[in-house]
Amino acid sequence: MMRKVVFFTLCLLLCAGFSVNAQRFKGELIAGFNLSQVDGDEVYGYTKFGANMGLGVMLPFSFKGKEDKNWAISMEMLWHQKGSKLKNHTNTNFCDTCPKEIPCDSTIKYRLDMDYVSLPVMLHYTDPYTGWTFGVGLSYNRLFRIREIENGVQSETSLLSETYKLQDVSMLADVYFPIYHQLKFNFRYEYSLYPIRIRTFNKKNGIPVDPYDRKQYHNMLTFRLIYMFNEPAEEAMEKRKP
After folding, report:
1. 105-to-64, 85, 127, 157 alpha-carbon distances in Å
2. Phi, psi for 11 (deg, rounded to 5)
3. What pTM, to 2 d.p., does this model score?
4. What pLDDT, on a 0 to 100 scale, did the predictor assign at position 103?
């Protein structure tokens, strides 16, 4: 999968048809948070809070015959927290029937914590009139930590249990704009291209039903601050066209 990401990056660079000698790489220091849910787990809402932090590099370029470098390609390496969360909003105490030697939290109906190392590859376009930058791309995500809690008790889900896929590929769309000099605000939407799990449910709203399967996908909103290195302050703030 890593080879596919690198190959995809090289293809974008070659298809752009730019002059390498005229380019300037820009570094990115990234810090923000995710609001996520897992579609298909019977839990609804962007209620899971997680970190989105890392580093990136961006390469502006222009097509042949164009002086303004309104296009760019970027690659990031992120610590990416995803998952799902549902508090216990009923008066049910799950811990009443739980053995005392097993840790239990009756305030949690369901919680899924998943930590990934992510490698997004994005193609960007900067609007010369507004300075806003729009991007689309793909991300390869590798799971390195997982914890799942159901009815207050931690389940046996682990990296070795193969309950969830260790690898995930997602599509991305984002926009960012300057705040002050090289500091940018970024909003990103992300969704899994393939199921991270296929789960069989035997109950619906606590009532036994005929078993049914649901495919599960990551669904996430991301809010970040990005500091750009190797970008002159006057370039970051100027309006390219009146």
Report:
1. 61, 13, 50, 17
2. -65, -40
3. 0.84
4. 86
Taking alpha carbons only, the member of 9, 10, 16 closest to residue 139 is: 9
- Residues β-bridged to residue 61: 71
CB 119 within 8 A of CB 139: yes
Rounded CA separation 151/220 (Å): 24
Q: What is the pLDDT of residues 127-177, one digit of tens each?
A: 988 889 999 999 999 999 999 999 889 999 999 999 999 999 999 999 999
3-class SS of residue 55: strand
Helix ranges (DSSP H) in 25-142: none
What pLDDT digit, counting tens, does each position of 67-115 carry? 677 899 999 999 999 999 999 888 778 788 788 878 888 889 999 999 9
**CA distances to 110, 155, 156 from 98, in Å:** 16, 13, 15
Mean pLDDT of 198-210: 80
Residue 99: how many CB atoms within 10 A of its CB?
A: 8
Give SS3 for 8. Answer: helix
CA distance 49 to 52: 10
**DSSP codes joined into one string, 163-190:** SS-SEEEEEEEEEEEEEETTEEEEEEEE
